[in-house]
Amino acid sequence: MPERDGYIAGVPCWVDTSQPDPDAASQFYGGLFGWEFEEAMPAGAPGRYVIARLRGGDVAAVSSPPEGAPAQAFWNTYIWVEDADEVVARAREAGGRILSEPFDVMDAGRMAVLADPEGAVFCIWQAREHKGARIVNEPGSLNFNVLNTRDPEAAKPFYGAVFGWTTLDFGSGQFWTLRAYGDYLEELTPGTRERTAEFGAAGFEDVVAAITQIPGDDPDTPAHWSVTFSTDDADATAARTTELGGAVLLAPVDAPYSRVTVLRDPQGATFSATAVVPENKDVGRRD
Length: 287
Hints:
Oligomer: single chain
CATH class: Alpha Beta
């Protein structure tokens, strides 16, 4: 798959994980996904930011916790925007909270940290030199970003106002969509819409993220964004996670078009890994 060189507004474009021990986290994810790492912060900087790469292309990053933040491990989702200040204003008007006002990240770009009305935290990224993930949808790279929420209907007006997202009920679940993204993919690779339809997934080319409803019998899980990485073998990835000191929270299960597992790294950050399984296309599908 060709490397990406940027995204369009409203599309998740980058992920990083905050870790109390970035070196230990790099060792874990390097062993799990084959990532190679390069320190991005200048010598003497107070924090760490280590870029992870596959085949020389950026896929994610590992950072130390921000100054004054709790020493917790978690994954962050970044959404591409053209004007971070303008998007922050829209988010505020739509009922979101601004956890960090827009600020410049050296020459890499400009970002802000936001929370939707239910409290799910995400970042926005106005790119300059750093164009987001260069490699996606390949084993060891980002595959999906997921909003975990108790009230999908309440989330829709917020994300619609901020990013212009609409939703698609695909029979097996709900997804965030952006028509412009499907058009963008069609322009990059003519025939994308036709091939997606032939695969039995018409409209899926517009999908930018997924929605998962937090069960009502799980009162302790807050609304949050989560990340999913591609793998060529979900079962092997789950087994390797435990070998490296992590934990399997959900053993590999069949899902629509895929086989997926939910994992936790040794410092406590959760993530998913999914393998494409075309013959599973009707698993869990509602008529």
